[in-house]
Amino acid sequence: MATFKAIRIDKADKGTTAALTQFDEAELMDGDVSVRVEWSTLNYKDGLALTGKAPVVRRFPMIAGIDFAGTVEQSSHPQWKAGDKVVCTGWGMGETHLGAYAEKARVKGDWLVALPQGLSARDAMAIGTAGFTAMLSVLALEKHGLSPKSGPVVVTGAAGGVGSVAIAVLSKLGYHVIASTGRASEADYLKQLGAAEIIDRNELSAPAKPIARERWAGGVDSVGSTTLANLLSMTKYGGAIAACGLAAGLDLPSSVAPFILRGVCLLGIDSVMCPIEPRKAAWQRLASDLDRTKLTEITHEIPLDEVPEWGAKILAGQVRGRIVVKIV
């Protein structure tokens, strides 16, 4: 194909524009693997890029989308051949490298992970960066030494993509999960995913005390700012919080008290430049530890042309769980 459909972001007089258009194949960036993209997904970062609410996009024009699953069409990379089913998340796609909301992508073969056995391409994108980040967080907590016997774990932004997958995985592993959300109407949804308790996010939104009553052994936080500060102040001795998001802001108005008085650890989670071996491990664990029935329950499908509209919705907190984008 000389041209293909893509969601293209361009600079405008005021900010940026995002629209479905035809993209010239000759404009694809360098890479040793070309992929026919079949499915993508919508993450919070995609919403920021599509709306221009944050300087996510670093070059123009840009094809939006940070995740895809599809089939290799051409490859000069020794690991991949035509017909291979692959997944790609992060690595600057949709930011510095032309991204996933398109019928075709050209990327470095070193960025790709084989589609795990038992997962369809659609399943992989129902998981996407949000679910992948949730699993990296779980793996980090396990490496720290956390287990269900350690005590309850808290998940913030519980009805969002990261939160939904984190709850589903942690509950299946046997943890007592406390879900924090600002949407009381999602209580039944969160309990179906496996949350044992639900708390209002307002409990974590007031200025944090240096140290507060111990409430949980660990947690997964996609919110940041004051919420993360409160989580840390309420973490049990020797516990840990995996920080993987900034929905409430980049700041961290905390103190050293949780770290030096309770030995609490703050575990930083990056999904964009995560090395390939931890990527493979996370995807294998997702294939085994994420209940496929629950994945279906948290997933909503949209066509490619609705991506800009849903990008605004995810920033407005109007998206529950995961959004998959059907490309072809």
From TrEMBL:
GO terms for molecular function: oxidoreductase activity. InterPro entries: Acrylyl-CoA_reductase_AcuI, ADH-like_C, ADH-like_N, ER, GroES-like_sf, NAD(P)-bd_dom_sf, Zn-ADH-like_protein. Residues 15-325 form the Enoyl reductase (ER) domain. Its EC number is 1.3.1.-. Keywords: Oxidoreductase. SMART domains: PKS_ER (SM00829). Coiled coil: none annotated. The keyword Oxidoreductase applies. This is Acrylyl-CoA reductase (NADPH). The lineage of its organism: Bacteria, Pseudomonadati, Pseudomonadota, Alphaproteobacteria, Hyphomicrobiales.
